[in-house]
């Protein structure tokens, strides 16, 4: 093929940070393959994400709190303001809590 176009790809993007989910450079964390499937040997994902098990297929899921709207910090049942939201009667709290 012609070597006239040896320049870098025009839209080459320098990732300054690794993917927060799998700690690998080269993709945005919302495009991380771990969000679809986590390899067998991986037991940890980045901060703010958790591993969910969907019928034997493990995948990473971004933690988000629907109560206070924070992402990558905690789940709503772990919300630091949970008692406040309970006191306010937040509609989301009517759902069945996870079993003890
Ligand atoms: Zn990734
Ligand atoms: Zn919260």
Automatic annotation (TrEMBL):
SUPFAM superfamilies: Retrovirus zinc finger-like domains
Superkingdom of source: Eukaryota
Classification via InterPro entries: Znf_CCHC_sf (IPR036875)
GO MF: nucleic acid binding; zinc ion binding
Protein name: CCHC-type domain-containing protein
Organism listed in the record: Malus domestica
């Amino acid at each position: 093929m012609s070597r006239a176009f040896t320049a870098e790809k025009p839209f080459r993007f320098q990732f300054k940070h690794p993917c927060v989910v799998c700690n690998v450079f080269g993709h945005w964390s919302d495009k991380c393959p771990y969000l679809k499937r986590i390899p067998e040997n991986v037991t940890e994902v980045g901060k703010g994400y958790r591993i969910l098990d969907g019928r034997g297929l493990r995948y990473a899921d971004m933690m988000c709190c629907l109560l206070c709207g924070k992402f990558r910090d905690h789940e709503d049942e772990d919300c630091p303001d949970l008692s406040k939201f309970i006191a306010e009667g937040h509609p989301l709290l009517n759902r069945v809590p996870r079993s003890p």
